[in-house]
C-alpha cells in the first residue's frame, strides 16, 4: 500500500514514529543480559531514535537499521551520522539475513503480523538470540468509548494474554514483558502535536486531512491515557 506523501512529510519530521522512550531500550538490553561485540537489527527503525539508544547501550555492537520508507531512511542517516557502529539502509524487515543477537522492533512488527514476523525472523537470529518488540494491546475489562474508538482501525488487537499466546504459537518463549502507557505516549504525541502546528499554516487540503486525523488520534488518547497501551515483549525461540 502506497503511503501518502503528506503522511510521510509529517512523520519524517518526528523524533520517532510511535510511542516509546530510551529507557525501554535500556531495560530490554539489561533484562536480556546483552553486551559485547553483538550484531543488532532495528527492524522498522523509522527516523532512528532507537538505533541511537541501542548504540549508546551497546558501544561494542554493530547496529543495523532497516526501514522501508526512503524519507525515514534519509532522516535516520542524517541523525546517526558520526556514530561508527550504526548503519541504516532501505529494506524489507520481513527479509532479514542476520545472524542477529537481537532484533529490536518498536511498534513495527504490526505491519507483518506477530506470527508471520516472528516466523520470518527466527532464521535471522544467532544461537541464543532474542527478539524485542512492542505491540498494541487491550487492558481488559470495560473499555471507555475513547479506547474503543482509538483502536477501531485495528480490529485484530488482542489483550496481553492473547499476545503472549501468539508469541508462543510462533515457537518462542516469552522472557519478560513491560507495559507502555502514559509517558511514552505523551512524549510521542508532544512531538506529533509540534509537527502538526508547524505544517498547519501552509497545509494543502490533502495535508489538512492528514493533520486532522493525527489531531483526532491525540484527542482520543488524551481522554484515556492510562488505558491505551503497548506491550514490550522480550522473547527467544524455543
UniProtKB/TrEMBL annotation:
GO terms for molecular function: methyltransferase activity. It comes from the Bacteria. GO terms for biological process: methylation. The keyword Zinc does not apply. The keyword Methyltransferase applies. Residues 40-129 form the Methyltransferase domain. Keywords: Methyltransferase, Transferase. InterPro entries: Methyltransf_25 (IPR041698), SAM-dependent_MTases_sf (IPR029063). This is Methyltransferase domain-containing protein.
Amino acid at each position: 500500500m502506497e503511503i501518502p506523501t503528506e503522511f510521510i512529510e509529517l512523520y519524517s519530521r518526528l523524533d520517532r514514529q510511535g510511542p516509546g522512550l530510551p529507557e525501554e531500550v535500556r531495560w530490554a538490553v539489561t533484562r536480556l543480559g546483552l553486551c559485547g561485540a553483538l550484531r543488532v537489527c532495528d527492524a522498522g527503525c523509522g527516523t532512528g531514535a532507537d538505533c541511537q539508544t541501542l548504540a549508546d547501550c551497546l558501544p561494542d555492537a554493530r547496529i543495523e537499521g532497516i526501514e522501508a520508507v526512503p524519507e525515514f531512511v534519509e532522516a535516520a542517516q542524517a541523525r546517526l551520522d558520526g556514530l561508527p557502529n550504526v548503519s541504516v539502509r532501505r529494506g524489507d524487515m520481513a527479509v532479514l539475513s542476520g545472524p542477529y543477537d537481537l532484533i529490536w522492533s518498536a511498534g513495527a512488527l504490526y505491519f507483518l503480523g506477530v506470527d508471520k514476523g516472528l516466523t520470518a525472523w527466527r532464521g535471522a537470529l544467532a544461537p541464543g538470540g532474542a527478539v524485542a518488540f512492542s505491540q498494541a494491546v487491550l487492558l481488559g475489562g470495560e473499555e471507555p468509548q475513547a479506547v474503543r474508538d482509538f483502536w477501531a482501525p485495528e480490529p485484530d488487537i488482542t489483550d496481553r494474554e492473547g499476545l503472549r499466546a501468539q508469541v508462543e504459537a510462533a515457537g518462542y518463549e516469552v522472557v519478560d514483558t513491560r507495559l507502555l502507557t502514559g509517558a511514552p505516549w505523551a512524549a510521542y504525541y508532544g512531538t506529533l502535536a509540534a509537527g502538526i502546528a508547524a505544517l498547519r499554516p501552509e497545509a494543502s487540503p490533502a495535508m489538512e486531512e492528514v493533520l486532522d486525523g493525527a489531531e483526532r488520534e491525540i484527542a482520543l488518547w488524551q481522554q484515556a491515557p492510562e488505558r491505551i497501551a503497548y506491550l514490550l515483549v522480550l522473547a527467544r525461540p524455543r
